[in-house]
Amino acid sequence: MKSTLLSLTLGLAGLSNAIHLPVQRVRPRSTGSTLMSKPKGEAGLGDTDNIMYTAEVKVGGTSYTLQLDTGSSDLWFAPVQNYNKTFASAKKYENLQVNLTYGTGWAAGAVAQMDVQFAGFSITNQSFLYIEELSQWDIDFEQQYPLYQGIAGLSFDTLSQINKVVLNNSRETWGRSLMSNIFLTDPSTPNHIAFFLDRTGDLNNTDTGYFDIGTYAPGYERVANQPKFDVFTGFESEDLQWNVLVHGISINDKKQILKTTVVADKDVGLTNVPPKGTISALMDTGTSAAEIPEQAFHELYKAMGGVLVKGASVYVVPCLAQANVEFTIGNVTVSVHPLDLTDVQVDDFGTGQNLTFCTSVYGPASYEGADNDIILGDAFLRNVYAVYNYGDFVKTESGLNTSSPFIQVLPLTNFTAASEEFKVARAKALAGLPPQLDVKTVNDPTPKPVKSTGSKNGTSGTNSSTALSAMALGNGWFNTSESDSLKTLASLAPVALGLLGASVGLLVILIAVVGYGLLQLRKQGSTRTAAYVSVPLRGEQHVEYKDGGATRYDTPFRG
């Protein structure tokens, strides 16, 4: 959950209209687009990467690298060195205490206000959470990765705990989220954000992408002509998340039966459930993987020859196995790149001899009272250019819209081409790794390699059952299981985005990425020069960050 501080000059005073910020994912917008990056382990033996897309936010003369999270709405900065000095001029409201609970970790403190700059926008008196307490998970993560520096929630004000506390105590609207204030401050800015999360290769250190505010990444402007999918909410109070209705999931051309798990509960105001034959999906950049219906999860990885690890909802899969997975939203079908279905791992299983194996990236969804059935995180979002449109804001009532918000997706993955890319990238990655595990033996006391793999042997590792259990727990997948092209582009904002990888306790994961080379987007992407910044990792982290599918982001940590 940490990211590296990326030096960057905003230099965009008086910016209006839209901004486009190039993104980079290293070994992983205002009106505009942001540079994103994702770091991974330094050597061939690295860590299981939890992808985290981040951007620079400046406050009190200091730049913080914050995770961009469409699954939550609140803004907070981690209490790093000189925290009190940086926020000395902040106006704190000690009577307005807030507790933010996430799928992993929590943060607590007082509502505060201070001027901030993000992607070229200057926001006066932006509300945020002044951290007074932080979960041990976050503290440990910060020690591992000192430059993880907080979260910028990009969901709706109705999901914001800060906004609710302010409204409930004062009936005023100054608790608005960062994005609300950006759009309200500059009415000329179209009220949308967009993400392009790219991949390169299994062995490459950098992926590229874009985060846009009020505009579209060059080459992807045709997304404006895509169908507009209304945001789905089950709550009569119009509490909104970035949910859309999924009309179909197919695995190797076999259609899955979709049945919602959302249950109406008038006591909590949940009165609307997805129509028959559909399920609700949260489009969440704050979740590195994805969660799908449990039956589809098992069918997917069994079809790939996978073996379920005892005591965990994780499959070990032959590393060269692939599947054709498609999601249908409305009348738009999105294919998933095979590289997004499995992760490469290395472990010695307690024997002193390293083995290479691959694990499931998609996990089984579990319903615990929210209005979404599944989560489509980064493992899905890398296959689309996604636009999140907030609708038209009403200044007098924070977070409410006069017209419905919607999402648009432009599919980017051609399965036939992706299948060939996968074969090349995965084979290249495996060529330099230890022998492959015979997946049929993963639950044996001493797992064995596939015979005659011809790969080189490693030397050290950790106990496999412990590592696999840690990974499953970190994903929340243990069996006990928790948001027309613009013709004028005012300016290019060089806001750096870091895509951070977090360790899950196994020695290696190569987020397999193919073909387009370092610092290069897909063919449809921009050809402009951008300053990409590497985000190195240090050490290991034994818990993966994710937004929990059923976790309400307005749930207090303490009573």
From TrEMBL:
Domain Peptidase A1: residue ranges: 53-401
Pfam families assigned to the protein according to its UniProt record, in alphabetical order: Asp
Signal sequence residues: 1-18
Ranges of compositional bias, category Low complexity: 451-465
Any GO BP annotation: proteolysis
Protein keywords: Membrane, Signal, Transmembrane, Transmembrane helix
GO molecular function, one term: aspartic-type endopeptidase activity
InterPro entries in alphabetical order: Aspartic_peptidase_A1, Pepsin-like_dom, PEPTIDASE_A1, Peptidase_aspartic_dom_sf
Gene3D superfamilies: Acid Proteases
Family from the record: Belongs to the peptidase A1 family.
Name of the protein: Peptidase A1 domain-containing protein
Organism per entry: Rhizoctonia solani
